[in-house]
Fold this sequence. Notes:
The structure is a single chain. This protein is α+β, with helices and mostly antiparallel strands. It is built from six helices and five strands; from the N terminus they run αααββαβαββα. The strands form two sheets. A three-stranded mixed β-sheet has the order 3-4-5. The radius of gyration is 15 Å and the shape is globular. The mean pLDDT is 90.
Amino acid sequence: ASHRTGPLTAGDIMSRxxxxxxxxxxxxxxxxxxxxxGFKTLPVVAADGRYLGLLSQSDLLGLTDSRIEAEQIMSTxxxxxxxxxxxxxxxxxxxxxxxxxxPVLDGTRLSGLVSRTDMISALAHVLRx
Length: 129
């Protein structure tokens, strides 16, 4: 993949205009946001901009207690990358089905997110050449 994609990096293809949620966001609000925006994942970000974790739609399944907060159900074990990470490792992370999106960090701060859609668009652009 590196040979075909050339010097493209996560910073080149990431989505920058992100919707994120606070760690104390309640599941009713999270569910409404997923429904309204059609997102598959949402990053959880602290007030100071630190990336904390990712939420997926499936994290909400079966939850009925409206007091549950994002930080209680978010996943913190997803891989993250930096803006200079080449596309090949990103492709591997997104292709195995374990991650819907890859957070792109600048230190501890969230800079962007590379979704499967972002990756498909980048690969299509490269192939059109």
